[in-house]
């Protein structure tokens, strides 16, 4: 794994371009970096959504790739120097772990789930506001040795992430919370109650009906598989 990339510092973002993801913070981050005198950087925005037009109109140092998958997405991840993830609503933010799998540190907010994935000042930064986002990003831009160390730490954190570790953490939290008053262990069954009818879309084909929907767990499994293969 390379410790850095030639050319401008690449600030990555990979997720839906939706208001609830806080994507307009990217434009504020760009403005803050420019005000600090930085010019040798580039935002790489992967995804699509209702906020794309606004971002295109308010960002000067950004390229928009649209939706990427497979090898193309993997190569794009690997070219990032840092992942900027300003969402305050994500409960987990799997994209952070995906970035770590490619040795890319992440800057996230102090609200929502991603802050519990990032190890502050080790595998990334947890920012309280746009000013801190900009300061942390600028620090990585100007300190290549620090960036290299964070890349290695992010990669090692991804390597240490496993299903066993995740499940043990869930069980620990469950025990700490204690049993609910009225619920029984049957609430953890994956089988729906018999009195709830299965809703079938009459317009869908049998193949579509039988195909499971992608879940956060399948995406997590993919990220963990990447760690094993690299």
Structural commentary:
The chain is of the alpha/beta class. It has a domain at 9-160: Glycogen Phosphorylase B (Rossmann fold). The protein is built from nine helices and six strands. Strands 3-2-1-4-5-6 form a six-stranded parallel sheet, sandwiched between helices. Helix 4 links the parallel strand 4 and strand 5. Helix 4 (94-101) crosses helix 6 (144-160). Residues 186-190 and 196-213 have low confidence and may be disordered.
Helical run tally: 9
Overall 3D form = globular
The helix content is 40-55%
- In CATH, what is the homologous superfamily of the domain at 9-160? Glycogen Phosphorylase B
Order of helices and strands: EHEHEHEHEEHHHHH
What oligomeric state do these chains adopt? Answer: single chain
Uncertain ranges = 186-190, 196-213
CATH architecture name of the domain at 9-160: 3-Layer(aba) Sandwich
C-alpha-based Rg, rounded: 20 Å
The CA-CA distance between the termini, in Å, is 9 Å
CATH class of the domain at 9-160: Alpha Beta
Overall pLDDT confidence? 84
Reported for the largest beta sheet, the result is: 6 strands, parallel
CATH T-level fold name of the domain at 9-160: Rossmann fold
Number of strands: 6
Sequence of strands across the biggest β-sheet: 3-2-1-4-5-6
Beta content? 5-15%
Structural class: alpha/beta
Brief sketch in words of this structure:
With 230 residues, the protein is α/β, with parallel strands linked by helices. 43% of the residues lie in helices and 13% in strands.
């Amino acid at each position: 794994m390379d410790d850095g990339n030639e050319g401008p510092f690449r600030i990555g973002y990979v997720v839906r371009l939706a208001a609830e993801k806080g994507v307009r913070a990217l434009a504020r981050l760009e403005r803050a970096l420019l005000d600090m005198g930085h010019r040798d950087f580039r935002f790489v925005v992967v995804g699509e959504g209702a906020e794309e037009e606004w971002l295109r109109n308010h960002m000067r140092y950004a390229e928009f790739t649209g939706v990427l998958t497979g090898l193309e997405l993997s190569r794009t991840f690997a070219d990032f120097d840092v992942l900027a993830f300003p969402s305050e609503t994500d409960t987990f933010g799997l994209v952070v772990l995906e970035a770590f799998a490619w040795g890319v540190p992440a800057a996230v907010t102090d609200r929502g789930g991603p802050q519990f994935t990032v190890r502050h000042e080790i595998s990334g930064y947890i920012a309280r506001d746009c000013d801190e986002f900009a300061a942390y990003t600028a620090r990585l831009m100007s300190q290549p040795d620090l960036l290299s160390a964070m890349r290695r730490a992010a990669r090692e954190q991804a390597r240490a992430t496993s299903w066993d570790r995740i499940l043990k953490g869930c069980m620990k939290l469950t025990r700490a919370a204690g049993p609910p008053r009225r619920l029984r262990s049957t609430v953890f069954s994956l089988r729906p109650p018999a009195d709830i009818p299965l809703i079938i879309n009459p317009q869908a084909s049998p193949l579509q009906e039988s195909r499971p929907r992608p879940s956060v767990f399948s995406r997590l499994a993919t990220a963990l598989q990447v760690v094993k293969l690299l």
